[in-house]
Amino acid sequence: MSEPLVLMEGIVKSFSGVHALNQCRFELQPGEIHALVGENGAGKSTMMKILSGVYSKDAGKIYFKGKEVEIPNPRAAQHLGISIIHQELNLMNHLTIAQNIFIGREPRTAKIILNDDEINRKTAELFKSMHLALDPRTKVADLTVAKQQMVEIAKSLSFNSEVLIMDEPTAALTESEIDELFNIIRQLRAKGVGIVHISHRLEELKQISDRVTVMRDGQYIDTVKTSETSIDKIISMMVGRTIYETSPELPENPSQEVVLEVKNLQQGSLLKDISFSLKKGEILGFAGLMGAGRTEVARAIFGADPYDAGEFYVKGKRVQIHSPQQAVQHGIGYLSEDRKRCGLTVGMDVKDNIVLASLKKFLNAIGWVNMAQTTLTAQKYAQSLNIKTPSLDQKVKFLSGGNQQKVVIGKWLVADTEILIFDEPTRGIDVGAKSEIYKLLNDLTRQGKSIIMISSELPEVLRMSHRVVVMCEGRITGILNAGDATQESIMKLATQRGGIISTNLIPEAGRA
Amino acid sequence: MQRLLAFGALIILFVGFSIASPYFLTFDNVIGILLATAVNGILALGVTFVIISGGIDLSVGTVLTVSAVMTGVFITNNHWPIWLGMLGGILTGGLAGFVNGVVIAKMKIPPFIATLGMLNVTKGLALVISGLKPIYFNDTPIFRSLAMDSIIGQVIPKLDIPNAVLVLFMAAIIANLILSKTVFGRYNFAIGSNEEATRLSGVNVDAWKIGVYTLCGLFAGLAGVVIAARLNSAQPALGAGYELDAIAATVIGGTSLSGGEGSIVGTVIGAFIISTLTNGLRILSVPQELQLVVTGCIVVLAVYADILRRRRK
Q1: What does the alpha-carbon distance between residue B81 and residue B134 come to, in Å, rounded to a whole number?
Q2: Residues in A touching B198 (Cβ below 8 Å)
């Protein structure tokens, strides 16, 4: 092989003491499309943010065309010819395409007067070379996400970039838009540009990439040729971890009584034909990659977001849920993935948080809150949940993540909901607290509560769930029994793009 | 779209008041409306820039006051030449705006708080500097005539539109050129649209933000000079509350409070809507208290119309 365009070696990066990257390596050839894959949190984005100057590395070396370079900020990267297109598009919606592409380096008369004709002309030339039919004078807000992506690509090309990093460029695109994008990428490859393609969609790799680098838990695993490697091999490289390999402790099988049934739930392009049922005393795991639509399902069931179509049955009875209040009345509780923003009023104390969702129960005849009774109740749950707090009057924001989570759980237990939806229940919680939460979930099911558990950690899903629903791009791609579920089988379903199950085969959503 | 809506509203107001009262559509009254718009209009021009950048400036009303007072100090107390005194007044506003900009861009104080602070600082300074008394320009009668005479009237007899109105339109034309034709205007929109993306594009966002608030201060300073000339005095207690009229004019004119959108033409129309409304209601003998109620409702309705329009999009 020729001299690499980019070589990163021994890259180390930690955030507040936690290793995000440990001795990582990456190599990019000119005229190559190089896929970078790994689970959520494997370190892909961090690695590329270092290459593009967004983060600075703690240790390691970066070579660009054989010369060692330092990339302290995005400008330096741009200068070298390294461009990154972030997952969150960085465009100014109110400006036109041309204005966006030339922001910060507009051609000017007398230093201050703009010449929009010139940038429109230059942009038109650029689009011509990319075979793109876009009017440079269109406002970016009026473009589809795919077209906005093209604008970002055009922008980086206008810097004469030799390295183009794309962080999940296809996450928000439709099938035909992806084809369009890939055509552009291939054209760039033909011109000798080195392209880094970060993606969660493994089917795409075969379609577009020349080589694949796999990362896991901040470690470099391997770089392989795409044509010589199967997707199954790549998946096993991605998930083959040993840290959490404790044997799953499944609680006894739940009864066959169905407590919640969701039929044909539909929400714009986010959720397509979601149908599943939850049994009494069951933990139903929801697995999938970021953006698969799991949280959207939970929020729709809880009435937090509007949906287009769908029917809900609680214990066999058809119910209407259009607001969280209705959901709570039907015995459904939702524990948000974002505890601080949606689950807790962190400025209030433990006691108040626990009784917040069911204050009505504690009102006396003239509508005052019965303080003595709230304290008693809070005490009871703080004890049974083993919440570690100096007192019930402690502000929740001073508790640890695990204890905060327990307060949220306590809150829904007081509200006495039969169905609990946990969205990432152990996010940001240390290992010890994790196992306590697991134990708690199991206890709850033994008491007859039914749980939907959304989790991005496969070992957690495998360990806790009786059944696993796997989602990909707003669809359910499979429902596995605990016995059949493995990291590999889940990963495969989670990356199963629309092309495999033809959407035509899925029946239209039932009328609400 | 919002601009058309606002313009339509202005026409309807004019027609409506003309039918309701024979005194409304008289030459003197229309001049009165124009004159009443001049000060608020100039203030609103600066506010438009700030709001497009995603910020807010609550201090323009009292910056106007302190600029007027300083003009009085320069011209009457220090006997500076009139042009220099006026320039000094305008620059006083610019200085206040510059301080706002530094506090917001460098100290990262939210614009609401930073300019609220400046509101009180300038309010107090105006009182302290003037010794609580108005400063009159009786020694320099030319100063008043600069604003109240009519150049237009000399060219076209009988069309005695005071120069103060002319100043508003000239300032509006300049503001429009800055906003639509210069790098300054472009970055102003860019920052209001997506500040982080603008920063990542290599634009020195902090410096441009300071520029925006300075420009807003300069417009407030100009408005201060105009009002001092019009009243032939610098009134140390006048100006508080003007900022809200300026913000209202800007918002009625279609500038989005969330930034990234707005136009000078819209703001000028918005300023005219407010003064037409006040004037018309007064001619119809609506008590001043009720005028406030009506104006308040109009502002909220204008923003609601904007929200409805966005939602449909």
Answers
A1: 20
A2: 92, 103-104
- Reduce the DSSP state of residue B173 to 3 states and report it: helix
State residue A504's pLDDT score. Answer: 35
Contacts of A104 in chain B (CB under 8 A): 198, 201-203
- As assigned by CATH, the class of the B2-312 domain is mainly alpha
Q: Which of B182, B192, B200 sits opposite A90 (nearest CB)?
A: B200
Residue extents of the structural domains in chain B = 2-312
Taking the CA atoms of residue B127, residue B133, residue B138 and residue B140 in that order, the dihedral angle to the nearest 10 degrees is -20
Question: Residue A427, exposed/middle/buried by CB under 10 A (0-12, 13-18, 19+)?
Answer: middle
Q: Which among B236, B223, B306 is positioned nearest to B271, based on CA atoms?
A: B223
Token reading at A483? 């016995």
Q: At what angle do helices A231-239 and A487-494 cross, to 10 degrees?
A: 120
In total, the C-beta contacts within 8 angstroms joining chain A to chain B are 58
> How far is the C-alpha of B242 from the C-alpha of B219, rounded, in Å?
13
Give the model confidence (pLDDT) of A226-268 as tens digits: 989 888 888 888 876 543 444 445 555 657 889 999 999 998 8
CA distances for A259 relative to A262, A331, A336, A419, angstroms? 10, 10, 21, 8
Residue in chain A nearest B195 by alpha carbon? A92
Is the per-residue pLDDT at B227 higher than 70? yes
With CB atoms and an 8 Å threshold, state whether A90 touches B201: yes
Token pair of A389 as six digits: 């707090």
CA-based Rg of chain B, rounded to a whole angstrom? Answer: 19
* B181 interfaces chain A, CB cutoff of 8 Å: yes
Check if B196 contacts A (Cβ < 8 Å): yes
Picking from B52, B201, B256, B313 by the largest number of A CB atoms within 10 A of its own CB, the best residue to mutate is B201
Distance CA A343, CA A339 (A): 4
Taking only the tens place, the pLDDT of each residue in A355-381 is 877 777 777 777 787 788 888 888 888
Please report residues of A whose CB lies closer than 8 A to that of B200.
Answer: 74, 90
**In angstroms, rounded to a whole number, what is the distance separating the alpha carbons of residues B230 and B304?**
35
Query: Residue A172 and residue A473: Cα distance in Å, rounded?
Result: 9
pLDDT band with cut points at 50, 70 and 90 for residue B73: very high
- What is each CA distance from A166 to A35, A52, A163, B65, in whole angstroms? 10, 11, 10, 53
Give the pair of three-digit tokens for residue B296. Answer: 């308040």
User: A403 near A415, Cβ under 8 Å?
Assistant: no
Centroid of chain to Cα A499: 21
Contact B182 A113 (CB under 8 A): yes
Taking CB atoms within 8 Å and a gap of at least 24, the contacts of A371-379 are A375/A351, A377/A414, A378/A350, A378/A351, A378/A354, A378/A410
Record the pTM. 0.72
Q: CA A83 → CA A75, A77, A129, A153, A165, distances in Å?
A: 10, 7, 18, 9, 6
Residues in chain A where the model's pLDDT stays below 50: 242-248, 499-512
Taken in order B43, B49, B50, B54, the sign of the CA dihedral is: positive
